[in-house]
């Protein structure tokens, strides 16, 4: 299976090479055309290239047999809205000669397009996050950590100097934070998914070019005169082309297939890093007043709304993982790995507790049933340890199923089990002994073979009024078990059985 998977991945990579070659050639040609063209022609180029991702996704649905289409449908919705915006600009500016095509409609469509593409990226992150939720959040926080200084020292001063309203600045800030957070998550996913998940890398490239485009439009555009430099347009063009390449690439069929499960442990370094994320916005937002400028109210108010829930969620995940690890270790220390029953140490601790309760008057007696499998060694020798392990697991399940809720069952070692019965009288323990012999004697199906075994059960009890210790009680049950074995052997005319250590 592993060789077949690797072979399939290699075939996908080989089929994806023409996509990469075409992508690089198209990017080079389109960027050159955009740079050399006047502003009126640039709008037409952006409009045409903006339609490529829609066509690529539709072709991919048929060629690559994409099963999970939701993220791609969101990308189609986003690119359709952005194409309408580009079409309006092409009609008014490219063909009509207008200075600008900005309007409330184009602003709404543009925001809707970005949100749809962002939603597609979030869907991809959510598809992968069940197996790697912690690392995805860490990567999102790293993206936010990069967005905060970029906003505070690059974008915010430029927007403020240009007199952009606070509402528009808020939208730009939230958009920047969201894009970098999702971009960090996509980068993490693309790295853990292996070299064969190329579509994810194209999506990350599209998000990266979108971020660059927003930054270029904010920093390099003269907001007063609306005379665009070509840099923002180049970023949009490369972003559109990256989406088209990711859609048409053969790995788009497994675009949302989760990577292998990742585990993150709680550590002082990880907690310190999360604390740094919480402090980053107040620290960066507090620098302008130290320099004699006005505090960035937008960052100080909106930033924590994004980062704080992520940090708290991450801390909760780490604490939950720590608790789960401790519970797992406690379980492993007290239970037999093969059968899931109490191991010898925990079994005797439980027995001591029941013994103390019996001596204290809570029970009138305490009984022990020592169970030793008959015919286990021949099964183990003939069919192997896998068959023997299956026998022990099934016997453990059957013992648990036939005892009372207050009884304690454990594996002493090898093919020997012990049942401690609080308050069990002679009639009760004898009935339980017969029930154990009956359920263990039922054939055990292993592969296509029915394995038939038996069990010899030794019984001993101690009264509350004249109790013996747990060690003595177990030794009495063990002795009774060997007596029963010898009697059974004698009745069958077989060689007598001796206890370990006896000749």
* Count of domains: 2
| Uncertain segments | 1-14, 222-228
Number of helices: 16
Oligomerization category of the chains in this entry? single chain
As laid out across the biggest beta sheet, the strand order is 2-3-1-6
Molecular shape? elongated
Helical content, roughly?
55-70%
Q: What does the model show?
A:
With 503 residues, the protein is an alpha+beta fold. It folds into 2 domains: 2-328; 344-492, Reverse transcriptase/Diguanylate cyclase domain (Alpha-Beta Plaits, 2-Layer Sandwich), CATH 3.30.70.270. The chain contains 16 helices and 6 strands. The strands form 2 sheets. Strands 2-3-1-6 form a 4-stranded antiparallel β-sheet. Strands 4-5 form a two-stranded antiparallel sheet. Helix 2 (39-50) packs antiparallel against helix 4, helix 5 (104-161) crosses helix 7 (198-219) and helix 7 packs antiparallel against helix 8 (230-248). Residues 1-14 and 222-228 have low confidence and may be disordered.
